[in-house]
Amino acid sequence: MLKISIFLAAIFIISFLLLFWFVRHENKKEEKKDSLITLAIVSAIFSVIITSVFAFFLFIIIGSTSVIDKIFSLNLTTNQLLLIGISFLIYWLTIDNIFEKLFEYMLGENVFSILLLAFSRVMPFYIIGILLKLNEFINMTVSVGVPLILLVIDTLYYFKNNKLYINR
User: Fold this and answer.
1) Which listed residue, 6, 18, 62, 168, has the most CB atoms within 10 A of its CB?
2) 137 pLDDT higher than 90
3) Mean pLDDT of all residues in 28-32
4) DSSP alpha helices (H): ranges in the chain?
């Protein structure tokens, strides 16, 4: 739990500092300038929102890993779950977005791009497992299982937004 708190506190502090700098910079351009307390409150509110979004996605990843852990009786420790979750989240929010846009550009926004994206997640997740020194069986199970759960989530989201395909 401490690792999640530290990770989320780091996200909050970084986003607060960047937002405070941005809001202060934009405030200098205006004739009627706001006080520093107002700028700090605005920055803090938006930082809480950003941190909440990161926490939501982190819990999706940790929950997916926990489901795989329970289904296959992998007996992952809480520390391993947290490290896997944070590592997968960092990949998911950075490099994975590049692959997502690339597949959508090449194949269009359809189920095939979502499927290809899920397959492309297996190798990076496996490499992350190697870096975290996971057992080979555990690493392979988590590296395939978590992208499958994310595939289900992405596919359900796709079909929810494209009801045209469901009503045929």
Assistant:
1) 62
2) yes
3) 83
4) 2-28, 36-72, 78-93, 95-107, 111-131, 136-161, 163-166
